[in-house]
Write a structure and sequence with these properties.
The protein has 13 helices and 19 strands. The two termini are 45 Å apart. The chain is of the alpha/beta class and 403 residues long. Helix content is 29%, strand content 25%. β2, α2 and β3 form a beta-alpha-beta unit. The longest helix is centred in the first third of the chain and has 13 residues.
């Protein structure tokens, strides 16, 4: 039987935390791979060592050669290698039959044990080498989260971002440092204090309890819920149809070009707290309304961008869905730019009110679906009821590289 690549998890307790039989296997292997800290736990090891740094392709190549030569390679990892660890990376390069995983308690397990807190249902997250936005939404939408931090996304930085998103400053937090070692320290404090704390040990797990997690709110706010300018707003009935056509999914990036008062952006963001919504608007009064509406309606995953499209769109992440409301002299230019930036499978929805704008969009997107919407609202008159028509709107929908 061919020798497997063995991946062994170690806590911060080092070699002393391992069973003797596991430590003996490490001393007898042909190749020992691990981070400098892990290799340092075995100074007496005399065979070949290979340090893991920013060199994962080289690590994979060396392990592949060891596997081909039937050498016994051992990879040292922190805690459970299959939980945000090197094991996940190795599994992409090797089959399950080529790997033997021997986990230690994960940092998450040690953290919750240290504070005697049940952890079923908790969001287990890593901020190592990834954009903070990718985990912030998980924290604010769950009752309990534990985060592996790094030198950039520290507990202080994460806490500051959560406070910007209106998380309760008194939310109970615990920073669990150097878990499993003789330098273990458990530091409980409210979120507000984490944001300004001088320093935490680099090896830590940041546990947050959120009594009021942000929940998805179905769209359908009345028009009166939004501050606006002279009633210029995508009306509720049309707004709901546009949102249905957009079909926003978890973690999508959405652009709302010509956001007006931000009603479409805000309804989209509230209905999907994991989405990142960018409201692009050039007019000062409307930007002030958007900022007010974001704060008042607690839609803090809406990012207000003041500027003129398409130039203002350049620095934004590529969108999964785009909404363009109204008409404008740069409509054709904007549509062409959006089509170029939209991700495959992404959807573009436009609301236009003039035949000229419809013709311009149709010329650029001849395969787009077009519906005209005529809404009439019931209005009481004395003891009777009459109907008052809203302006007709063309809703144009197009999907990029539709499967």
């Amino acid at each position: 039987m061919k020798t497997k690549i063995t991946v062994i998890g170690i806590t911060a307790g080092g070699a002393n935390s391992l069973p003797s039989i596991t430590a003996d296997r490490i001393h007898q292997c042909d190749l020992l791979v691990g981070g400098k800290r892990h290799l340092g736990y075995f100074p007496e090891y005399s065979e070949e060592q290979f340090a893991i740094g920013n060199n994962i392709p080289e690590v994979i190549d060396r392990l592949q050669r060891a596997n081909d030569d039937d050498q016994h390679a051992i990879v040292l990892a922190s805690g459970d290698p299959m939980c945000y660890g090197i094991g996940t990376t190795l599994r992409r390069a090797f089959t399950a039959d080529q790997l033997e995983i021997i986990p230690a308690p994960s940092a998450f397990q040690l953290a919750f044990a240290a504070i005697a807190e049940p952890w079923e249902g908790a969001a287990l997250l890593s901020a190592h080498g990834r954009p903070l936005d990718s985990i912030i939404w998980r924290i604010i939408t769950t009752e309990k989260a534990a985060i592996l931090t790094d030198s950039i996304n520290t507990p202080q930085i994460i806490a500051q971002e959560l406070l910007k998103r209106n998380m309760e400053p008194s939310a109970p937090c615990t920073i669990c440092e150097n878990l499993g070692s003789d330098r273990q320290r458990i530091v409980p404090m409210p979120l507000r204090d984490v944001a300004t704390y001088p320093d935490f040990a680099p090896l830590n797990v940041f546990v947050i309890q959120n009594a009021s997690p942000l929940r998805a709110v179905p769209p359908g706010l009345p028009d009166e819920a939004f501050a606006t300018e002279r009633g210029q707003i995508t009306k509720r009935e049309v707004r709901l149809l546009a949102l249905a056509e957009l079909g926003l999914h978890d973690e999508d990036v959405m652009w709302d070009v010509g956001a007006g008062s931000g009603s479409v952006s805000i309804e989209a963001a509230r209905s999907n707290p994991s989405a990142q919504v960018y409201a692009i608007e050039k007019r000062d009064p409307f930007c002030r309304h958007i900022a007010h509406n974001i704060s008042h309606l607690n839609a803090h995953n809406v990012h207000l961008i003041q500027g003129t499209a398409p130039g203002a769109l350049t620095p934004l992440p590529d969108p999964d869905v785009v909404f363009i409301g109204g008409s404008g002299e740069h409509m054709t230019e904007i549509v062409k730019y959006v089509v170029e930036r939209l991700r495959d499978g992404g959807r573009l929805v436009l609301n236009v009110v003039t035949l000229e704008s419809l013709a311009a969009v149709r010329q650029t997107l001849p395969t787009a679906k077009v519906n005209q919407v005529n809404i009439q609202r019931g209005v009481p008159i004395a003891d009777a009821l009459r109907f008052e028509a809203l302006n007709p709107v063309f809703i144009i929908t197009w999907q990029k590289n539709k499967q």
